[in-house]
Design goal:
The complex is a heterodimer.
Chain A lengths: L3 E4 L5 H6 L6 E4 L1 H6 L1 H16 L4 E3 L9 H5 L3 H17 L4 E4 L2 H10 L8 E4 H10 L14 E4 L13 H8 L4 E2 L30 H10 L5 E4 L2 H13 L7 E4 H8 L3
Parallel strand pairs in A: 2-3, 2-4, 4-5, 6-7, 6-8, 8-9
Helix pairs in contact in A: 3-11, 7-8, 9-10
Chain B lengths: L2 H6 L7 H5 L3 H29 L11 H13 L8 H17 L2 H11 L4 H6 L2 H28 L13 H33 L18 H4 L4 H25 L7 H10 L13 H12 L24 H9 L5 H5 L1 H4 L6 H22 L15 H5 L6 H5 L6 H15 L5 H13 L18 E4 L1
Helix pairs in contact in B: 3-11, 3-17, 4-12, 5-8, 8-9, 9-11, 12-14, 14-17, 17-20
Classes of the chains: A alpha/beta, B mainly alpha.
Chain lengths: 266, 462
């Protein structure tokens, strides 16, 4: 099998629209996906998967702006609604119907909260998108690079409890030949990573422990070799946890999209 | 018993039994006590209802079918209680036991009003001892449940019952409830056992209905007592049970135990749909729309006082206030709260208790000084910003609450007030707000750099 590297020109909605095209999916990158060094890798991994599967997609690029999730949860409703309405104006301008995002917070806000301001879209989290492709047989994972690895999945609150999605990420993981183990607190009982509701951007209130340490201990207790997440904030917190425990060499922390990217050798 | 008293009551002395049963006085006393108990209870319930209605009026009328389904599943079916299986099962004992044992109250009411004794025994025939025996079985379950609960609270000191907000009153309240229930249920056994012995001795008025399974174990203990004493025991237990229930009924409005009534209602009015969706603020939508379109902001109607978020109970919705009266302080919310687990001050249960305490005080002030009275306090005298800002909005508390209280929604309303009315959010969050406003991201990166992640991106073509 010959391999050659192809440079990806990520399609931008404005260009596509100018050419009279209407991409089927809008990929909502999210602020973390665009700016957080660690999560940029996830965005890149997921774009590679989209390209590999020849999905008709585009991004908003510089027209995208914060979904407003943090502003709303931190009590700044004014700012949230400004962000929401500006984003909706752009999304509706491009007649967007379907949105994929790797960020459960954007997923929740766009899916559940934007409809209050005439932003009605089918919003899909990337784990749901991958689950669908696997179910349809369009995405097959044959690589056994994780065959002997133990994986554990940390449920992001905004995918899990907030939206009841516990199966999609697990279905995707089950499609990767590997050993899976659940943490003692999982699914609806999963412990938060500690970053939601604006916590990501401030010092934690005084206590006797950081939430991310409490959570990484759950993961370490499983003896997993890979901690899998599906959220930019969870990624930061789990990585911090591994660093705190001096485990970042032995234990990897990947987003589900990165696992797929690796197994497909993209 | 002094014969004088017998004469006063107009009875030939045939034992103490007649003093308290089978006379007009007895029936009148019974009815009067019930009228008083129900009147006082209604008076207190009305007050609670009035207090709940101090909250902002919102309409929750959608999806009745789904709501009844939730009541069946979560309230009647106790589904969320089994998240913690041990206390879930013990609570089921007490809950089912209490409902079933109180079916017996039906007979008690008939006997009390008509001056009869075990009036339903004749009606149900051979089923009667079976029914009473099974009630006894459930009474035993209640006792077992309550005893284990007392041990868990006071001996094992289960962590969630010893958090800082569980001060003397919440702890005493819980213990009083458990002890009362044990006393109420124990009285049934002694009543039935002495009743049976009186039957075998052919005591007047004690018709033969046979023995009941569990109370028969109490018979040997009482067997050697004189008939008069057994009369006293039987009647005392009967009255203890009745008066106990009346007193307990009237204790409930002063107690966290009010959940026995409100949990069904509160679950009916649960938040439906995804937990992640926060309540919209239409007043802000109007304002933002006019800002974005460059039109004049809408004129506020005369007398319309719009506050953003809530600083006091009247700015919360009635559902928030109902939440607070429904809470039975079980602490399952705080037990799973990431902030609370890691030693932060935030305890979702405390916030709910604070709202109720504040609401109770507001209600008392209204009783004393009239409905427009306002003291100089607010919820922020009960709840600190430190608690509010420790929440990650992870919804673990909401998920754990057996009666579907929405703690996150309460926290959000208070945060909204801090940010939009007081403009006193933590500095770090203000910086984030500024970044979002100016750069469209919480980080201080330019919006023009939003595509840099896509630079030099290659894929292995196969």
């Amino acid at each position: 099998m010959s391999e050659n590297k192809r440079k990806i020109e990520v399609p931008v909605m404005a260009d596509a629209f100018a050419k009279g095209e209407k991409p089927e999916y809008l990929l909502w990158v999210g602020s973390a996906g665009a700016f957080d060094d660690r999560y940029k890798k996830v965005t890149r991994a997921f774009v590679k998967i989209l390209e590999h599967l020849k999905i008709n997609y585009a991004v908003l690029g510089v027209e995208e702006s914060s979904s407003g999730d943090i502003a709303r949860r931190a009590g700044n409703e004014m700012l949230f609604q400004m962000q929401a309405m500006m984003n909706i104006e752009i999304l509706n301008g491009y007649e967007v119907k379907k949105i994929i995002t790797c960020d459960p917070h954007a997923f929740n806000t766009l899916k559940n909260e934007y409809p209050d301001y005439d932003g009605n879209y089918e919003v899909i989290h990337h784990t749901q998108f991958l689950q669908q492709l696997i179910a349809e047989g369009k995405l097959k994972i044959e690589s056994d690079m994780f065959k002997d690895k133990i994986l554990t999945y940390h449920d992001p609150c905004y995918l899990g409890r907030a939206n009841g999605e516990y199966d999609a990420p697990r279905d995707v993981l089950n499609a990767i030949p590997s050993r899976k183990v659940e943490m003692k607190r999982n699914k609806s009982n999963a412990l938060c990573c500690g970053a939601g509701g604006g916590q990501m951007f401030k010092e934690a209130e005084e206590g006797n422990k950081e939430v991310f340490i409490e959570r990484i201990e759950d993961a370490l207790a499983t003896n997993a070799e890979v901690v899998v997440t599906a959220c930019p904030y969870c990624m930061v917190m789990m990585t911090d946890g591994l660093k705190y425990k001096n485990k970042e060499e032995e234990i990897k922390n990947y987003d589900i999209a990165e696992l797929i990217e690796q197994t497909l050798e993209l | 018993m002094p014969k004088v008293l017998d004469k006063v009551l107009g009875i030939q002395h045939k034992g103490i039994y007649y003093l308290i049963k089978g006379t007009m006085l007895y029936t009148i006393l019974f009815i009067l006590l019930w009228v008083a108990a129900i009147a006082f209870f209604s008076w207190n319930v009305k007050k609670i209802r009035r207090n709940i209605k101090l909250g902002k009026d919102i309409e929750i009328k959608d999806n009745r079918k789904k709501r009844w389904g939730l009541v069946m599943k979560v309230a009647i079916g106790q589904s969320k209680m089994f998240g913690l299986p041990i206390s879930g099962i013990l609570h089921l004992f007490v809950y089912a036991g209490f409902i079933l044992v109180n079916i017996e109250m039906l007979e008690v009411m008939v006997d009390g009003v008509a001056g009869t004794h075990r009036a339903l025994a004749g009606v149900f025939g051979f089923l009667y001892p079976i029914a009473i025996s099974s009630f006894e079985f459930f009474a035993l379950l209640v006792i077992i449940g309550c005893v284990v609960f007392l041990i868990r609270r006071n001996v094992l000191r289960v962590n969630r019952f010893w958090k800082p907000e569980m001060k003397w009153w919440p702890r005493l309240d819980a213990n009083l409830i458990l002890i009362t229930e044990i006393v109420l249920m124990t009285s049934i056994f002694f009543m039935n056992a002495s009743d049976y012995i009186l039957q075998t001795r052919g005591a007047h008025h004690y018709k033969e209905v046979g023995s009941f399974f569990l109370s028969s174990f109490f018979v040997p203990m009482l067997q050697n007592l004189p008939t008069e004493t057994l009369h006293i025991i039987e009647r005392t237990c009967w009255w203890l049970h009745i008066v106990g229930i009346m007193v307990f009924l009237n204790y409930i409005p002063y107690s966290k135990h009010f959940h026995v009534f409100l949990s069904f209602v509160n679950v009916f009015y649960s938040k439906l749909g995804p937990a992640g969706k926060l309540e919209n603020m239409p007043s802000i939508t109007k304002e933002v729309k006019s800002m974005l379109s460059g039109e004049e902001p809408p004129v506020e109607e005369e007398g319309e006082e719009v506050s953003f978020g809530a600083s006091d109970v009247k700015q919360l919705t009635w559902k928030h206030l109902m939440d607070s009266y429904t809470c039975t302080e079980c602490g399952r919310c705080s037990r799973v709260c990431p902030a609370n687990i890691t030693g932060k001050k935030l305890s979702p249960r405390k916030l709910i208790m604070d709202v109720r305490d504040r609401l109770e005080l507001t209600g008392k002030n209204i009783d004393k000084h009239g409905k427009d009275f306002a003291d100089d306090k607010s919820l922020f005298d009960y709840i600190t910003n430190e608690e509010l800002w420790a929440c990650t909005t992870c919804n673990a508390c909401v998920n754990a609450c057996p009666v579907n209280i929405d703690h996150v929604s309460l926290i959000l309303e208070l945060r909204r007030y801090i940010v939009m009315e007081q403009a006193s959010s933590p500095g770090e969050l203000n910086a984030i707000f500024n970044n979002i406003e100016n750069n469209g991201a919480p980080w201080q990166f330019s919006q023009d750099d939003r595509m840099l992640w896509a630079d030099e991106l290659y894929i292995n073509e196969k």
